[in-house]
Design brief:
Largest sheet: 4 strands, antiparallel
Order of helices and strands: HEHEHHEHEHHHH
Distance between the termini: 29 Å
Length: 294
C-alpha cells in the first residue's frame, strides 16, 4: 500500500515537473515573441520616419515644360526615390498661405515661389550621407536651382534611431540569454527527477539513443504545447494593443505576426529538444555510483 502511494507521489511530482517545464518554455517564448514583435514595429516605424522626410527640388525660372517633365522621369527612375510629387508654384503658394495664415501673393502682387518636385527616398537611402550625395547629384541637373530639405531632422533621426535600435537589440539579447539559462535549469531539474529510470535502462544494456529517444520525443511534444500557450498569449497581446493603442499598432501586419509565431514554434521545439538532449546525455554518461550524489 505504502509502495503504491509512493509510486503515485513520484508520478505526480514528475507530472508537475513537466507542467512547470512546459509553462516555463511558454513564458520564454511569449517574452521573446513580444520582444521580436516590438523590434519589428520599431524598425518599421524607423523606416516610415525616414521615408516621410521630404526633399524639395526647386525648378529654375524659365525651365521648359519638356525639361520639367524629363526631370520627373529621371526622378521616377532613380533607384533611391520612393515617391515623386510635382508641386506647381500655385499649389506651393496655397500651401504656404495656409501655413502663415495670410495671402502673401496678394500683398506682393506676384508669386515668388518656383515650381518644385517633392521627393521621398526609400528608407535604406535616407541616411544623412546618402541624402547629401543625392542633394549634390540633383543640384547638378539642368533646370534645378536648389535642393531644400531639413538637414537637422535627417541627422537627428539617424542618430536617435540608431541609439534606440541598439538599446532594443541589447535588451532583447540580454533577455534571451537570461531566459535560456533559467529554462535550461528548469529542464535539467525535470530530467533529474528521472535519473533513476535512466540509470536502470543503462544497467539493462539500453543504448544511448534508445534512452534518449522517448525523452526527445516528449520534449518536442512539450515544446509544441508550450508554443500553443505562448501563441494564445501573444495573439491576445496583439489584439489588446490593437484595441487599446491603435496608434502604436498601426504598423501591425498579418505577415510579420505569422513570422513571429513560426519563429516561436521553431524556437520552442529547438530549445526544448536541445536542453533535454544535453540533460539526458549528462545522466547517461554519469557513473552509476555517482547518481545519488548529483
Amino acid at each position: 500500500m505504502a509502495k503504491a502511494e509512493n509510486t503515485k507521489s513520484l508520478r505526480r511530482k514528475v507530472r508537475n515537473s513537466y507542467i512547470i517545464s512546459t509553462i516555463s518554455i511558454a513564458l520564454v517564448l511569449f517574452l521573446l515573441g513580444s520582444v521580436g514583435y516590438l523590434i519589428f514595429n520599431a524598425v518599421r516605424a524607423t523606416d516610415l520616419m525616414k521615408e516621410n522626410v521630404a526633399i524639395h527640388l526647386m525648378i529654375k525660372q524659365g525651365t521648359s515644360d519638356e525639361r520639367i517633365a524629363e526631370i520627373g522621369r529621371e526622378l521616377g527612375a532613380h533607384e533611391a526615390v520612393k515617391e515623386v510629387t510635382f508641386v506647381p508654384k500655385a499649389v506651393a503658394a496655397e500651401n504656404f498661405k495656409e501655413q502663415i495664415g495670410s495671402d502673401f501673393v496678394e500683398f506682393l502682387a506676384f508669386n515668388p515661389l518656383p515650381d518644385a518636385y517633392e521627393v521621398k527616398l526609400h528608407a535604406q537611402y535616407s541616411d544623412k550621407d546618402y541624402v547629401r550625395k543625392f542633394e549634390k547629384e540633383a543640384a547638378s541637373w539642368n533646370g534645378i536651382e536648389e535642393v531644400v530639405y531639413q538637414r537637422a531632422v535627417v541627422e537627428q533621426i539617424g542618430s536617435n534611431i540608431n541609439k534606440f535600435n541598439l538599446v532594443l537589440l541589447l535588451f532583447g539579447g540580454a533577455l534571451l540569454v537570461i531566459a535560456l539559462i533559467l529554462l535550461n535549469n528548469t529542464i535539467r531539474l525535470t530530467i533529474y527527477s528521472k535519473r533513476y529510470l535512466i540509470n536502470t535502462m543503462k544497467l539493462v544494456g539500453a543504448s544511448k539513443w534508445f534512452i534518449m529517444k522517448p525523452f526527445l520525443l516528449r520534449s518536442i511534444l512539450h515544446g509544441v504545447y508550450a508554443w500553443l500557450i505562448a501563441a494564445a498569449m501573444f495573439l491576445a497581446l496583439v489584439a489588446g494593443l490593437g484595441e487599446g493603442l491603435p496608434e502604436v499598432t498601426f504598423l501591425a501586419e498579418s505577415r510579420p505576426v505569422y513570422y513571429v509565431l513560426c519563429g516561436m514554434l521553431l524556437l520552442g521545439i529547438l530549445i526544448s529538444a536541445l536542453f533535454t538532449l544535453f540533460a539526458v546525455n549528462k545522466f547517461v554518461r554519469m557513473n552509476t555510483t555517482k547518481i545519488n550524489l548529483y
